[in-house]
Amino acid sequence: MPVKQISVSLENVPGKLSEMSDYLGENGINIIAISVADTADISAIRFVASDPEKATNVLKSHGYPVKITEVLAVEAPNHPGGLNAVLKPLKEVSINVNYLYTCLGRGENTVLIVGVDKMEEAIQVLKKNWVHMYDEELYKL
What we know:
alpha+beta, VC0802-like, 2 domains, seven-stranded antiparallel beta sheet, 37% strand, globular
């Protein structure tokens, strides 16, 4: 099942990411997974939060431009080649992985956040291949 990803564009200057993290932390919101990519002037932040609705409201109240996207949260074995437990079934049915990043602080298996071009098809093929997908339980990590 899909989970909600929050995307924010930040000015690429020292302290901006820390400021955003402070606002979330002060409101009891945990960042479960995060990806940061920069350009010359802007950093593109994608993350999954413990309470996506509250996180969105907090960030909007501080003037951040926020975009919500549905992504998959899937478990991949943590051993050489384990990533292919997720990627190979998607490849076999021509589903493109636009991006992926990992959750923070997980144990034996790795939880991946995956943005795909065909969400419903990806859910079906991963279920068929016994890939564990997270939904609301991810927000409790």
